[in-house]
Amino acid sequence: MLDVPTNGGLIWDEAEYYGDGVISMPFEFEMTVLADFYIFKSDWYCMPEDKSSQISISEYDNKHYFEAEQEFELHVRGTIAISLDLSRAAHGPEFVSSLGPILDTMQIEMSEIEEVTVITDETAQ
After folding, report:
1. Strand, coil or helix: 2
2. Is residue 58 part of a domain?
3. So what's the pLDDT on residue 14?
4. How confident is the model at residue 21 (pLDDT cuts 50, 70, 90)?
5. DSSP readout, 44-83?
6. 8/124 Cα distance (integer angstroms)
């Protein structure tokens, strides 16, 4: 389960223009996720109590694994590609005012997710 991203935004200082109306724009955000997974029983029993108490476990039809559920806070960083048809833009002083219709037709696609980090007490700032 994914919650709504928070504390996010575009990283304008790292934007790159590749030409032909294509801009690479880094972004980052934080979000809460609820993950279902399986954990080896001996791994769960060997965890410090403060870590294992954060994981809800239940038995299922397996002798070696628990079915587990845990909530995580994630920090996500990635890149989007923005494509603009700049051939429709005016040149000179009218350039800025001609961007409105161009921005209405821009295409945005997720290029890549570069890094996903679990936010812990040690990584929180």
Report:
1. strand
2. yes
3. 93
4. confident
5. HHHS-HHHHTTSEEE--S-SSEEEEEEEEEEEEEEEEEEE
6. 15
Distance CA 83, CA 79 (A): 13
Inside any domain, residue 103: yes
The mean pLDDT value of the chain amounts to: 89
Q: Which element (helix H / strand E) includes 35?
A: strand 22-40
Residue 2 contacts residue 31 (beta carbons within 8 Å): yes
Domain for residue 113, yes or no?
yes
pLDDT at position 105 over 90: no
What is the reported pTM? 0.72
Q: Domain range for residue 71?
A: 6-118
Q: Domain for residue 99, yes or no?
A: yes
